[in-house]
Amino acid sequence: MTDPQPQSLVPRVLLVGVDYSAESRCAAEHALRYARALGAHVHLLHAWVAPYAPPTIAPGDGSPVDAAADLTTPDLLALVRRTAEEQMAQFVAALDASDVSVTTNIESGDPRKVIPDYAKRHACDWVIVGKRSLSHVSEWFLGNVATYVVRHCQVPVLVVPSREAP
Amino acid sequence: MSNVKKILVPVDFSECSVAAAKQALAISGPLGAKLDVIHTYDLPSFIAPSMVMYPSQFEAPLAGHAEKQASEQLANFCRRVGLSENPEVSARVMLGPAGQTILDVAAAEHPDLIVIGTHGRTGVARLLMGSTAEKVLRQAPCPVLAVKVHHEDDAAVSAS
Fold first, then answer.
1. Tell me, what's the ipTM?
2. Do B110 and B142 touch, CB atoms closer than 8 A?
């Protein structure tokens, strides 16, 4: 008894979790290579976590708190978001992605939650994440995000080790 | 052109490794990659007293029997998944503990990708990831594609 080979097993939509690190650059490069060979679309997703910000930030030099009025929380969030968008633009510009159809997305939240949720919402066929491989010790730490994503995504997850340092 | 030319597919005949093998097969064509299917097996841990007293008498037949059995199971698996009669697929059995043997093969033969099921035949089905898959994911020198079974319910998973 031989099962037919379902065409649907060839992934058409790849999702890469990106934190702008060297590891995620490596993961994105792998994703592009698979996308070229398989004719797949690539989503690059960055998840950002809102920083803790006290209601007012004192400059610390004894001057009035008003001096820091431009660092109120909404501004800070806008700044974080703008920075994330700029970083994503730089990240994509540094990739050789001209011949691949790529979507970039930035969502707020814990990447361990955001990546599996996004994969489900956008019907991604594979999820691709990087893994640190800097030392012998780190092989025991698959990476918080990578571990969680492998465990919680229903679709296949490709874990890409970063290139060893020269 | 893809740079993925050799895909290592460790299988233990579980439902997850069926899914992993099918996934590997599906992408091997478009990628132009060869599949290297391996099944690791261990010798039975049961040893009768007479085997301890005259080990040499039993060792060879036992090992031979285990290897033959593993090879037959692997051939059946390959037929079932549709890997037989494919010139781009090689299949072999190897003696040793699963995780370490897979890592040794990966280190020696430099596959471009390992495709592995997240849950094997042994261990606790309810765990989020099997120990062999976890070890390979942590320590493999190359990218690893972790494949799950598309969901059925818990009972089907536990039964396997």
1. 0.85
2. yes
B157 CB-contact burial (10 Å; exposed 0-12 / middle 13-18 / buried 19+): middle
pLDDT per residue as tens digits for the range A32-82: 999 999 999 999 999 987 766 555 555 556 555 554 455 556 777 788 889
Angle between helical axes of A111-121 and A144-152 (0-180°, round to 10):
30
pTM for the whole thing?
0.84
* Nearest-CA distance B46 → chain A (Å): 32
Contact assignment for A34 to B4 by CB distance below 8 Å: yes
Q: A140 and chain B: CB distance < 8 Å anywhere?
A: yes
Measured in angstroms, the CA of A1 and the nearest CA of chain B are apart by 6
pLDDT tens across B64-119, in order?
888 999 999 999 999 999 998 889 999 999 999 999 999 999 999 999 999 999 98
Euclidean distance between CA atoms A34 and A43, whole angstroms: 13
